[in-house]
Amino acid sequence: MSSVDMLIEKLNQALAFELRAINMYAHYAAYVNGINRIHLNPLFTTEATESIQHANIVRGAIVKLGGICVTERHASEIVHTEDYNEMLKFALDTEKYASELYHGILKSVEQIGDDELFDSIEGIYFSELRSIEEMRMLIQ
Ligand SMILES: [Fe+2]
Ligand SMILES: [Fe+2]
User: Fold this and answer.
1) What's the gap in Å between 50 CA and the centre of ligand 1?
2) Which one of 17, 19, 53, 126 has the largest count of C-beta atoms within 10 Å of its C-beta?
3) Span from the CA of 112 to the centroid of ligand 1 (angstroms)
4) How far is the CA of 36 from the centre of ligand 1 (A)?
């Protein structure tokens, strides 16, 4: 497998994981209740929107590299809960895993020497890191 093919495969894993994140955050935005809904409904909605934007960037990269984008979401379970603290813990797990995926992608992009792609993936990576810190601070 060529290094470009390996990169396309990693990008598709990230795309599938963003598609999962869109569903997870939209689900939690719908179910978060009580006084915490005031803050967490907008937070989860923002994260869902951010995941759509990340998916778009990753899709664009796959197309540019001549690959075919996945359309199915990553298979890892989205756990239903109405406990906001559990939602935040699942959000933290999601952001951690996403940041690991993008960290791996950055290493592969470095190998093929595409600076523009590196910058756009690095932007996503930093936003996952920011979300990790935010979820960490919010978990009680
Ligand atoms: Fe993301
Ligand atoms: Fe994220």
Assistant:
1) 6
2) 17
3) 22
4) 23
- List CB-based neighbours of ion ligand 2 within 5 Å: 95, 128, 131
Number of domains in the chain: 1
User: Model confidence at 66, in pLDDT bands (50, 70, 90)?
Assistant: very high
12-50 confidence digits (pLDDT tens): 999 999 999 999 999 999 999 999 999 999 999 999 999
Q: How far apart are alpha carbons 84 and 77 in whole angstroms?
A: 17
Q: How far apart are the C-alpha atoms of 109 and 25, rounded to whole Å?
A: 28
The CATH number that applies at residue 119 is 1.20.1260.10
Range of the domain at 54: 3-139
- Taking the centre of ligand 1 as the mean of its atom positions, its distance from the CA of residue 35, in whole angstroms, is 27
Q: Are 98 and 22 in contact, with CB atoms under 8 Å apart?
A: no
- Each residue's pLDDT tens digit, 86-119: 999 999 999 999 999 999 999 999 999 999 999 9
